[in-house]
## 1
Amino acid sequence: MQRRIMFLALAASVIATFALATPTQASYITTVTIADNTSLPANGLDTTWSGVGGSITDVQLLTPAGVTGVIGTDTVHLAFNSPLVAGGIVTFSFVSATAPISFVSGVWAVTLAGRDATVDVNSTLDGLQFSSVPITVPEPESMSLLIVGLAGLLGLRNWTKRRAKVAQA
């Protein structure tokens, strides 16, 4: 009888842990480095990616200082606070739902003879490099439920031992 009760308590704690824990979707952070080899100062950069598994989020321009944004679901927009010198390096990161992803296209925003223009990114000449690493997300709800369930199981075990000693006396 005691073993059945302990088994039921353990089963209830495990079921509660899996039933109430919110499943998390693995995400990946991609870091991109690219150099402006257009021989013109760039005001911004737009890149398009495939295989992101939904919308790109949490875009961060690491160097140089500037403004970031997402256009659509798979395009990263960067606007530099001051024009990037020719040959200057841009490093940014973003979060996507899946990896591996691939670079589709990109354009540098430049000014030619007083007019705004774009120059296509040449991934080879511009030295495009990017890598994705998974973001680990702890599940505190799951762990706390497991601890509560195990504490209850140990308490039940001690209660049944005390009850058995009283019955023997």
## 2
Amino acid sequence: MLFVITSANSVIFVLGMFTSKGVLEPRRLVLVVWGVIQVLVVGVLLLSGGLEALQTISIIAAFLFMILMVFMAVSLLRSLQNERRKIERQNLALRVAVEKLLASEAAGRITSDGCRDKETDIESKRSEE
């Protein structure tokens, strides 16, 4: 019995948060309204078909939730694949930039501040003359 009460309380609280636009502590009136709605739905199901109707509705709701979970899993998988591709592109761009920097450093002896070494420039001008 404690499990049922705790679950019902959690459902009411989550529904209250959803309908209060994400407020972490919904107003007491919102919680009471959701509690009354939940009691009325369960009461109608019990009166109309007994425990069997309540179990059937629970199974249908669980099936719909399972479909939602499948879509969420597919969405997560796609997001992770996109993230991996993005990281691979960034790594490739970084590798190319480092290779260009190393090639230009080897060709022109670029100093650590990104400028050409003055002695190299003087030597290259002398060799041109």
